[in-house]
Amino acid sequence: MLKSRFISTAMCAVLACGVANAQDAKSSEQPAFEAPAQYAPNWSDEGIAKIADQLSGTWRTTDAVGGSTLMMTVAPAPVEGMSDTLYVEGVRAETPWEPYRNAIFQLYRYKDEVRLRTYEFAVGSASMGLFNGIWAATEYFPSVSRDDLIATLDVELDETQNGFSGSTPYPYPTGVGGAVEMTSSINLDGDSLTVADRGYAADGSVVWGADADSAVEYERADSFASVDRRPDGMIIVDYGPQGDHTPHEGDELHVHYDGYLTDGTRFDSSYSRDLPFVFEYPPGTRAITGWGIGMEGFSNGSHRKLIIPGYLGYGERGNPRANIPGDATLVFNVWMAHIEHAEDVSHEGHDHGDSHEGHNHD
Fold this sequence. Notes:
By secondary structure, the chain is of the alpha+beta class.
């Protein structure tokens, strides 16, 4: 049981130390809490607003690409010092909690015509997990500015009967697949979105993307995650997949997680220790209130994103040992790695003469 005791002690730095703070929040009068208003963009003009509305939503490829169905969600999101911006997240349908692309689109006028500019993030890999799934709660979109982004290419857009179409005005530098330059085109026709890229070698020959089959066609789709905006201010983004068991009282939960502040700081990660947080459900005083709420209905093998307001976290005092300030909103990407049934845990404890010695956080 020594290993289990070590696991619990390690997780104490984030989820159990400062439990007195969580208890204070629960035992005292609940503070007045007002969730931030959902983000409402202020588009520069009607033409840009129309294109942004046409782009927004969830898209799914009509055919597999590289053996996977790709999905993409586009949602208006704020960027400091920039207008008319949208957040873009690309995922594989089988692993929607793990994006292969996070990007920003900006719509702007150039000589009275609309252009779409794409940006990649330059915030560092440790912070990128904060953005994953944030399309579901853009009122908590991390504070980013133009300095945190790298412009990649522009596409000139023309309005069509059912949408818009356009292409890059000239080739852009690239290093993908042996190409030195690339072009891109896009066509949105109602509920169909087609994107085609083409790469060129130094001698001008086409290296990739020459075939018509290289175009990727998307269609509108249902979201790849469900979003629960709770009255208490918590937001739970549930990716699934739905497992064969959800937590019941007395079950032993093995949960992996990354924890973030909304400024992009990753304050803790069970993955960096290669050790899950192991605790008995419900966690009670062993974890912050919001963590316990986030475990409700969380099935075995599935993934969630938890956005926890400060009063359901460490309250006014914060958690100095974990460098968490007072009233900080906490964001967790969590994976229910394993649920040990209560009867199995109890039986194991009977065999060893001590049912839960290794899971005491005190």
